[in-house]
């Protein structure tokens, strides 16, 4: 197989039906709707019921993305499944093989990507590289999370922010780089020196989870919000500029900025730093909170279904998360109907 670009050709999303409002949280925690709305822009988030896993959400979103791409879920539909998640069904094995099997996609390559909130863009970069290298024709790329399973429900600094959900795209080999949907530029970065700003301390080989440990809460997700806020704006702005420069787009020419949906104030500061009018930033977090690796495909599905993203418009994706990790992708929007 020869070198060719990879293009987005299908888009699907799935949110679990249980919605938690700010008022619901204020009834249980020392917080208010006013604080959450003004400090984050979030009004509601979805949560899975006990027993529902990340893989369950990924299967739903994957099914919809295949349908949107006009593909039946059957062997031969895609050549690989790449699943970005911070909340796999199990520490071992990866969740993607189970998702591929449940979708009936046959014995194809399937693997998880762990880059926290940047995971979906890392997964897109990896899948796109497989296609351009000629290793695959079509790949199902999913971002799925159940943060409700790793958040300390008593921690108001994280439990008001995160939500559960899944989004997915089908990437396919394109004839030429002028085809709408082609990923024109990709930028990825990391800074492991600041790994402690976002972490789940226990449960890995560094700090095993054993009953009776002095820090039983080490299994919960932790985030140093203020420091993360500043780094998120700076790194996403740098990465965005880098990817735009690499393909010769100016910031003024970007029609839609689809940033990681962590905080409305971050999106606003990012748009300002880039010199992109604020109204070009897609905002979806008010309905779903921060869904980590699912946030970009969920925001894309929302904006496309609202008619905000129109075929041919210039779209900049950028994300930031634990690791620290960050990344950006630029594409022109294809004629795709989200499912
Ligand atoms: O997804 C990966 C990337 N993640 C992000 O990008 C998240 C980045 N960080 C943020 O979005 C913000 O830092 C937060 C939303 C997490 C926090 O907002 P903040 O404006 O940075 O607040 P803060 O942490 O500085 O806290 C301000 C005050 C504190 O009280 P004192 O010390 O001033 O008395 C907090 O204890 O707000 C308090 N606070 C709350 N009050 C009511 C913190 N959480 C809450 C809450 N309700 N839920």
Written account of the structure:
With 339 residues, the protein is an alpha/beta fold. Helix content is 30%, strand content 23%. The chain has two domains: 6-173, Thiolase/Chalcone synthase (Peroxisomal Thiolase, Chain A, domain 1), CATH 3.40.47.10; 183-332, Peroxisomal Thiolase, Chain A, domain 1. The chain contains ten helices and 13 strands. The chain has a five-stranded mixed β-sheet, sandwiched between helices. It has a four-stranded mixed β-sheet with strand order 8-13-12-11, with helices on both faces. A two-stranded antiparallel ribbon has the order 2-3. The radius of gyration is 19 Å and the shape is globular. The relative contact order is 0.20. Bound molecules: oxa(dethia)-CoA. The site of oxa(dethia)-CoA has 22 residues, from helix 2, helix 6, helix 7 and strand 12.
Q: Could you list some keywords that capture this structure?
A:
Peroxisomal Thiolase, Chain A, domain 1; alpha/beta; 339 residues; 2 domains; 30% helix; binds oxa(dethia)-CoA; 4-stranded mixed β-sheet; 5-stranded mixed β-sheet; single chain; globular
